[in-house]
Write a structure and sequence with these properties.
Belongs to the bacterial solute-binding protein ModA family. With 262 residues, the chain is α/β, with parallel strands linked by helices. The protein is 40% helix and 20% strand.
């Protein structure tokens, strides 16, 4: 009986040891010992398509990493960062909103300008109102929507107004370019001031009208790693992808401009 009891205990010990060994092995992701990571990127709404594509490439090149985006107006994003939102990378649609963050010493080193963008008039397909110039947006029969003044596209709109002397009377001021675009594509507005890249992204829903005065308000887009990031090495690698030749090809194909050489 004692021999039988000893054999049972020994057998249980082997089973428990085997279970313990299996648990230790499963703690290592893919056997590498590196846990899954999430990289959080706050980016201007106009970067939605391009950064989403680059995020997928980054995930492919970094197994176990998930890139999570927060796309919104740059002014809203800057305030969220200053207020302590957990984020690794910030890409703004102008230097002013990046400055809100850098003034608080919340960006590692100096932000890098990685693309430029400029305004374009978004109109319904076929341009039924016959809008051909920036001045046409002030006509009383044109329902216009623009970005709010604190948003980069709204700030650019104000610069063009000041340069041309045209006084716009928008029916609404939206929180970001995508909201403006949505008003036009849904038929709730005749025209909206967005970026050339936004019109290109929705080319099946809206047409774009160029105007020379847009050159007076070119937006430079800076990107940087947030100092509170717990994934700074990974964040730096994402910034490097954005600024790399491959990253610039994706951005250029969407209509973004190349920043002037420093």
């Amino acid at each position: 009986m004692r021999r039988m009891l000893g054999a049972v205990i020994a057998g249980l010990g082997l089973v428990l040891a085997a279970c313990g060994g299996g648990s230790t092995g499963s703690d290592a992701a893919g056997g590498s010992g590196t846990p899954d990571q999430t990289l959080t990127v706050f980016a201007a709404a106009s970067l939605t398509e391009t950064f989403t594509e680059l995020g997928k490439r980054f995930e492919t090149d970094h197994p176990g990493v998930t890139v999570r985006f927060n796309f919104a107006g740059s002014s809203d994003l800057a305030q969220q960062i200053v207020n302590g939102a957990p984020v690794d990378v910030f890409a703004s649609a102008n230097t002013k909103q990046m400055g809100v963050v850098t003034e608080q010493n919340m960006i590692v080193g100096q932000p890098e300008i990685f693309v430029t963008n400029q305004l374009q008039i978004a109109v319904a397909p076929g341009n039924p109102k016959g809008i051909a110039s920036f001045a046409d947006l002030s006509k009383p029969d044109v329902t216009l929507v623009v970005c709010a003044p604190q948003v980069p596209c709204g700030s650019a709109t104000q610069k063009v107004e000041q340069a041309t002397g045209v006084d716009l009377k928008p029916v609404s001021e939206e929180p970001d370019v995508r909201s403006v675009l949505g008003k036009v594509s849904s038929g709730n507005a005749d025209a909206g001031l967005v970026y050339v890249t936004d019109v290109a992204a929705e080319k099946d829903k809206v047409d774009g009208v160029n105007f020379p005065e847009a050159e007076k308000a070119i937006n430079e887009y800076p990107i940087g790693v947030v100092t509170s990031s717990k994934n700074q090495d990974l964040a730096k690698q994402f910034v490097e992808l954005v600024r790399s030749e491959d990253g610039q090809k994706v951005l250029g194909a969407a209509g973004f401009g190349t920043p002037a050489a420093s």
